[in-house]
Amino acid sequence: MAHGEVLEFEEYVRTRQDALLRSARRLVPDPVDAQDLLQTALVRTYGRWDGIADKRLADAYLRRVMINTRTEWWRARKLEEVPTEQLPDASVDDSTEQHADRALLMDIMKVLAPKQRSVVVLRHWEQMSTEETAAALGMSAGTVKSTLHRALARLREELERRASDENDENDRLGVRVPEREERERCAA
Questions:
Q1: pLDDT tens digits, 60-107
Q2: Which residue in 149, 131, 113, 7 sits closest to 60, CA to CA?
Q3: 108-141 burial string, b = 16+ CB within 10 Å, else e?
Q4: How many CB atoms lie within 10 A of CB 148?
Q5: Which among 8, 28, 101, 186 has the fewest CB atoms less than 10 Å away?
Q6: Considering the entire predicted model, what is its pTM?
Q7: Model confidence over 138-160: pLDDT tens digits?
Q8: By the 8 A CB rule, do 46 and 7 touch?
Q9: How far is residue 17's CA from residue 14's CA, in Å, rounded to a whole number?
Q10: What's 49's DSSP letter?
Q11: How far apart are the C-alpha atoms of 59 and 55, rounded to whole Å?
């Protein structure tokens, strides 16, 4: 790779690093794994940087490399891992509702298969169109739509299940939980 292309790649990484790390963080739940995912994708992209003719597409290329890498990691995971019915409670340092909702969503995203998670991340967080998502993932627009539909239905199921479990637990303990509107009125 020519010296000018090395400098161009370094500048690209410097300017896009935060956005790319956010994308990686949305693909894998652990922040350290997200950093590893981004670094691995950057190393792989560096070797092919001169082959990217339109550098405006570098983000899409790098996202695709991250998705492929995450899929490789998922396939190579240890078989000793045992899936459980109940996910552990997510610890949230910041008690604001927005952060709690985000943490809950990231925790619930773990129930999705990698393909479903990729579609949800690209469509809803990265705000890519159906066609852009299809191109990035190498699938048809119809497959993106059906995968997204099933993924969102699975997320709704999991949210409802958790809400039901929480209500059952509160009933068992005799705890009255105020409705969201009451909480918002009290906060104002």
A1: 889 999 999 998 888 876 666 566 777 767 655 545 676 677 778 888
A2: 131
A3: bbebbeebbbbbbbbbeebebebebbbbbbebee
A4: 18
A5: 186
A6: 0.48
A7: 999 999 999 999 999 998 999 88
A8: no
A9: 6
A10: G
A11: 8
